[in-house]
Amino acid sequence: MSDDVNEFYSACDCCRTRKYKCTKEKPVCAPCLQLGLDCNYSRKASRTPLTRSNLTASENRVRDLETAIKALFPGVDIETVLSSTIRSTEQPHGNAKIATSPSNKPSTSSREASHEAETTSESLPQAADGFDWTENAVSLNELADGMAALSVNPEGAGYLGATSSVVPLRALLGREREKSQQDFSTTSWHSQSMFSDQFPTSLPFSNVSENTFIDAYFRYYHTTYPFLYEPLFRAQLHGKSPRPEGNSWTILYNAVLALGAWCIGDDDSVMDDFFYRKVARIPEESSIFESGNLAMVQALLLLSNYAQKRNRPNTGWNYLGLAVRMALSLGLHKEFPNWEITHLQREMRRRVWWGLFIFDSGASITFGRPVLLPEQGIMDARSVINIHEESLTPQTTTLPDEIPHPTPYTGLISQSRFHLATNSLHHRLISTPYPLPDELLGLNQTIESWENSIPSYFQLDSPAIHADETFLFARYRLSWRSWNLQIILFRPVVLQIAARRKQPDSNSSPETKEELACREKCIQSARATINSISDFVAIGMVSRLSTWYMLYFLFQAGLVPIICLLTDPTDPDSILWLNDIRTTRDLLSRTALTNRLAARCLTVFNRLSPVLDSAQSEDLGLGMWEGNFADEFLNEQFGGDMGAWDWENGEINWMI
């Protein structure tokens, strides 16, 4: 009887999958009864012990089968057939295991088998409508954040995939996820007034006030994202130039006011949301879907970024999708060299298109979702030209030459080239099977090649960069973005090594040189990000817009040394990791004084108190590993299926 009982898992399938504490009642345990789930106790997989005799028998059987196949199908290359079959066969989810062929290096075979079984990172809600989201009255004390970094609970936040910044946080928090979401959502520093429904329908703004917000837009936002032509906008504002037909001007005007108010406001400001709500009421009067023009694309582009900055990420995603579709309908992705329009009109089409391109590409990485833009071969719109804004006017008859100096458009040009080079890399990371370490190192060469292509006048050691704070921020942000993609690229290997070292086994060989190289590159990119942000803050040119991007990149970088320190607290580099963590916390602490999103990020770091409160790395225990970190990592990063890994028994089993 006892042998029959031991054939089944003691915890039910649902509790093991979701990492609940199963009460083990039959036929239904307490968690499944409460949640209305099917309660099943699966039979344990039968595995052959790894002995010399069993391995020899398996090798002989494989040899006999190969002989039989060659006799039945002369001329067939078995390796080609096997490779094709493995790549094309859809692997089941859940607890399914993948058999591997014998090898002289069993640990390497296991890792290859596990990579074949890996799927993109998917943290699933419990209900079928769990990905549904509502952001019509979102405040900072609720689920969403525009960085997709703190949405630890997948319920109500929309789908966040493998490259989203919340992936390692979900793995670290483990089974405390629901409690963590509640803690992060009920902090004492949130503002109930933010995005409150109790707004007046009108505010006594004078023309001077609105001009202040417009000036703020062009001083802070436009210098970072130059998607408008300022002289034309101001001429239309004062009635000196015809405005676009329909509601597009009204929507664009209020989008500019909202972003301008946001740039000079703080977390308690409501003026930006007042303008945003004026935009939201326009579709009630007439549909914005029944017409399209360049001004409407510009408006939707700005609204998408504003919504994300105001922690409405999925709303911003939808604005962006509509903007892309409308841009395609206007042919912004095409050059049309024979079209007789002015040089400024042609250049504005390019600026808007490449603005859409970098926003859509960046948002896709942030949320771990596919880039839905046309492939490079379909787009023939030329790059934005690197000139000062006053060099191109409606009266320009000869296109000015590009200059070898930083301009307001250098950042846009460099970032668009970055995404052109790396969007295929992002798609590879959210595809299956997940790339092996040697492929990851090859993908990284794409990033390094792009870095080497950045012109000398846009390097951080260029005096021209330091002459203007907008150029400096654009260049720093570009470096942070590049390092962030490298962190995303190598983070799965860092977490996989961490999970493996949690349960060392005598049969497992050391990490391969490719794995260690991936881990080191991830650590280096994280440290470079942290140090670079610290340098930028020390310069003293921090604005609300730059703070948002600093938080986005800093939070993801700061999690890397935490994972490493928890894995190897006695490693020779542990003191460096501890310093990285402390630098991150210090930066968050300073920013949290005036920024609630930074305070939320700081709360996460303070939850990792065993790390932050230790004077020396040697004082660290492994308490943070409690709560099945390895299992949580596998669920987050690879859909819970690691083939040959048997975490429950604390060992690696080779299926033969």
TrEMBL record:
Residues 87-128 are annotated as: Disordered. Its main location: nucleus. Pfam families: Fungal_trans, Zn_clus. GO terms for cellular component: nucleus. Coiled coil: none annotated. Residues 87-106 have a biased composition (Polar residues). GO terms for biological process: DNA-templated transcription; positive regulation of transcription from RNA polymerase II promoter by galactose. InterPro entries: Fungal_SecMet_Regulators (IPR051127), XnlR_reg_dom (IPR007219), Zn2-C6_fun-type_DNA-bd_sf (IPR036864), Zn2Cys6_DnaBD (IPR001138). GO terms for molecular function: DNA-binding transcription factor activity, RNA polymerase II-specific; RNA polymerase II cis-regulatory region sequence-specific DNA binding; zinc ion binding. Keywords: Activator, Carbohydrate metabolism, DNA-binding, Metal-binding, Nucleus, Transcription, Transcription regulation, Zinc. Residues 11-41 form the Zn(2)-C6 fungal-type domain. It comes from the Eukaryota. It is found in: Nucleus. This is Zn(2)-C6 fungal-type domain-containing protein.
